[in-house]
Design a protein that fits this description.
Length: 379
């Protein structure tokens, strides 16, 4: 292996190396290379053959109570062809129908992770998926199953088959009043299917509107809501500082929106009417996921930064006993501070997955890009 290639691999996912980033303008935070794999127990050559690497850090744990986690270096390992492109990572991970996972990687393409979390491969290098900003990824059970990836750089939604073939790309919704002015940008950051079967699209970096799209016609509908908070740092029900992420609520009837700069989650109706808000302990939430484990549902919230602008965290919530629909933080995972994963300055996305009797939290970071699998420790 050429010396420069080996050095690049170590920079991408070596043990406890700090990845530096060159910033470029971005709404709410600065752009630049992102944080992905950290402290891998081995490196892979271009052929995928394992190579010797620095030893992993001593075992550490993060989190509280029965939701404590350790870093799984083996499952966090990425092949060279993916690891070398991690620095600009700025997206999210989609859960496929058979337990497989997907994420878009700028400059690389569409990546698939096997259901056992071990095999990672690039399944598409289509220019629409490799050169734009794949800010989110969501699985849709439509047309036999497909993915939608919001491209915040090009102002598009890319729909692709699970094999990686792009079906269609949908641009800005010019019929909406805000977008009639060509100077007003469009930068979709997150999507989710609502209770009515429509696709809800957060324009989190521009209008701060939540748009709707018919998945049959793949055209925007006339319904939208939201907009910019008058005070970008004050919590304003139904308005957003940065409506960065959206998810279907656990009740199957509402939407949860991560209002990042205002440091809370908003529950709204499909019409955008405010229902209630959830605090995130002073962190800056980016995305929301739900996972069933141990007979209960957990909410997983990846936060760009922690309280007092500390490094990114993952908040785990349980529903408050006797109060369905109410959530409380029961564990805070700190990849950088507790686990020594130096690349994790910012957590851009986190999801929970269960394999057998094991619970994992997958973290996807930004600036610099990084990827890590955290495994729940036995009590």
């Amino acid at each position: 292996m050429p010396r420069e290639d080996a050095a690049e691999i170590r920079r991408s996912f070596g043990c406890l190396l700090l990845l530096t980033a060159t910033a470029a303008a971005h709404e709410g935070h600065t752009h630049g290379p992102s944080p992905l794999t950290q402290a891998s127990g081995s490196e892979r050559s271009a052929s995928g053959t394992a190579q010797a690497a620095p030893p992993a850090a001593p075992a550490r744990v993060t989190g509280q109570g029965d939701l404590r986690f350790r870093y799984n270096a083996e499952l966090s390992e990425l092949p060279r062809e993916i690891a070398k492109g991690l620095k600009p990572a700025h997206g999210a991970i989609a859960k496929g129908p058979q337990g497989e996972l997907y994420f878009g990687l700028e400059g690389t393409g569409l990546v698939r992770v096997s259901a056992d979390l071990e095999a990672k491969s690039i399944i598409s290098t289509d220019g629409r998926l490799s050169t734009g900003g794949m800010h989110d990824a969501e699985y849709l059970p439509h047309r036999g199953g497909m993915l939608v990836l919001p491209d915040n750089k090009r102002g598009q939604l890319h729909f692709a088959k699970l094999t990686g073939e792009v079906i269609r790309s949908v641009g800005r919704p010019d019929a909406y009043e805000h977008f009639e002015n060509p100077r007003n940008g469009y930068a979709p950051t997150s999507v989710a299917v609502g209770p009515d079967g429509l696709l809800y699209v957060c324009d989190g970096y521009q209008s701060r509107l939540v748009l709707t799209l018919d998945l049959g016609s793949m055209d925007y509908t006339a319904r939208y809501f939201g907009g910019v908070s008058k005070d970008p740092l004050r919590q304003s029900p139904g308005k957003y500082s940065t409506n960065h992420g959206v998810a279907l609520g656990e009740d199957g009837e509402s939407l949860l929106i991560a209002d990042r700069e205002c440091r809370w989650l908003q529950r709204v109706t499909p019409d955008g009417d405010y229902v209630e808000g959830f605090q995130v302990g002073g962190a800056r939430p980016c995305g929301i996921d739900f996972v069933e484990f141990g007979g209960e549902q957990l909410m997983v919230v990846g936060c760009l930064r922690g309280p007092d602008n500390s490094p990114g965290v993952v908040q785990l919530y349980r529903q408050t006993k006797g109060q369905p629909g109410k959530w409380e933080i029961v564990s805070t995972l700190r990849p950088k501070i507790d686990l020594g994963l130096e690349a994790f300055r910012h957590v851009h996305n986190a999801i929970g997955v269960v394999r057998g009797d094991r619970l994992y939290v997958l973290c996807y970071g930004w600036n610099p890009g990084c990827y890590a699998v955290l495994e729940r420790t036995p009590n």
